[in-house]
Design brief:
The complex is a heterodimer. Chain A folds into 2 domains: about 1-115 and about 245-270, 3-Layer(aba) Sandwich (D-Maltodextrin-Binding Protein, domain 2), CATH 3.40.190; about 120-245 and about 300-335, Periplasmic binding protein-like II (D-Maltodextrin-Binding Protein, domain 2, 3-Layer(aba) Sandwich). In chain A, about 50% of the residues lie in helices and about 15% in strands. Chain A contains 16 helices and 11 strands. In chain A, helix 3 (about 70-75) packs parallel to helix 4, helix 6 packs across helix 7 and helix 8 (about 195-205) crosses helix 9. Chain B is built from 15 helices and no strands. In chain B, helix 4 (about 60-65) crosses helix 15 and helix 10 packs antiparallel against helix 12. Chain B is an all-alpha fold. Chain B folds into 2 domains: about 1-55, no CATH class; about 60-295, MetI-like fold, CATH 1.10.3720. The longest helix of chain B is centred in the C-terminal third of the chain and has 37 residues, at about 260-295. The chains are: A alpha/beta, B mainly alpha.
Chain lengths: ~350, ~300
Amino acid sequence: MKKILRNTLVGGLATLLAGSVLADNITLLNVSYDPTREFYREYNRAFGDYWKQQTGDTVTVRQSHGGSGSQARSVIDGLDADVVTLALAYDVDALRQHAQLIPENWQSRLDKNSSPYTSTIVLLVRKGNPKNIRDWDDLVRDDVAVITPNPKTSGGARWNYLAAWGYALKQNNGDQDKAYDFVSKLFANVPVLDPGARGATNTFVQRGLGDVFIAWENEAYLSVEQLGKGQFEIVVPSVSILAEPPVTVVDKNVDRKGTRKTAEGYLQYLYSDDAQRLAAKHYYRPSNPEIAKEFAEKFVDVELFGIDEVFGGWEKAQNEHFNDGGHFDSILENIARR
Amino acid sequence: MTTQTLTHVANPELAARWRRATEEPAWVRWTLIGVALTFLALFLVLPLLVVLYGAFEQGLQVWWAAISEPDALAAIRLSLLVVLIVVPINLVFGVAAAWAIAKFEFRGKPILISLIDMPFAISPVVVGLIFVILFGSQGWLGPWLAAHDMRIIFAVPGIVIVIAFGTMPFIARELIPLMQQQGKEEEEASLTLGASGWKTFWYVTLPNIKWGLIYGVILCNARALGEFGAVAVVSGRIRGETNTMPLHIEVLYNEYMFTAAFAVSSLLTGLALVTIAVKSFVEWLDERNRPAIASH
């Protein structure tokens, strides 16, 4: 009798253990920037199905969204992210610089500089383009009010700023002083600087401020297709910047929580054909050229320059333009003095 | 208070003059009343109607779907949990602090009183940052907490702490003037008659401060539900986990789900209205019971 009882107990325990080894419940936290909300909501579901099929594990992915820079700050301060999917490499690199949460070579661990999707910066205007805005030049006109978030806190705004600066450099044979003047004039036309891309979209779309909104391509399409159908138009400038929002596993966190395998799977699946199509559906440019071809009609062909070729990489761009005492600070000071 | 002074004025002529001094011409009175009412209508009633209209614009079903969705339920649960922890803590603290201040003389009493007021003076964002600097992984206690696998910031304990901090003064502030006014004679009488300290508190002090205490709890509760700034800093905004109701409303608004945002807002507004109703009821009860207490 005793033996039977013991056997049942042991057997039951073994089944329990085996069960838990075979099918785990795993929770991941993805700390992301503002405009990816809709995309990741759908992607998390797709990944959950895929991972269940592959491993039998049930994955719940929690999301946290906000301005890219402040999200990075939260992870540095201890927000327990398994993966970060931020707006630009500099914000991700901050995790290494300030807290050694990721190794130095983080950006080479995944394909395409760890950017499974790319985007660019376009101009959103009101229906019928009443101010006749065609290109970056029109943004420095006296009669145009420009909406952009604050480059200090928003990743998207830094891309906006650099896109304008890069355009001015191209127009003036690389003359940095002229580019500085151009961007100064542009920011003198900005009535409010929201801290994040989402806030700025709301300012332009809901509150009706400004004539033109410098926006992520995907935010611009979201506004046109979903928020105010028929109220807005997208103007693609003659040249813009290639925005590469990178992703990475947060090594220190996943190793402590034992979620590395799932977290890495989560990021790798972003490169799968299904996920690439999902990204395109949410107006992110697929990094896989084959899939990008399928959506050639959706994304306008525009001349794009990279941050490395024009600004010598994020580290340099950040130091020269956005850190305290950089060009952006002096531009704001000059505007305030006027 | 005022009725008492009026009836106690001995000289009727003096009383009449005093009354005349506040008798303005009708148009002044009506202008003042009009200004007050217009102001209330514009800044209170109108926004309230906007919230309710936005919430129910697309029907009861949409409203229900918005507040019964898992992330919304998690936010509601978290907000209620926080209130259930914070209010009792502040209740004990408030009574203890008010008791100490009103019934004892000690050095540094003015400092203690000013300290209790501090959470009102500090901006909520600063409160949040203070606790990030204390408990964040780059902060003073962060490495120790991490080594012991404890999470405070970006988890529920952090949210409880900042809300407890922000709502700390409500109950104490309500009780201190009340207890000071009541003095300590009744307690002294009770003690002289041989009652224990605990008995004195339970049968003498507590009935005297009952209404003030309830009033303080209601205010504390309302503020704990509504706190945004400090929570936004320490929450990490993990949806379904560390978003309180106000934070969840912001998330919904930023995701262009305006009806859902208004639906959760209407729930928070509803709680506020209930709070105000309970508060008025308590005041009314208090008013009714006051003569009874005074005649003791």
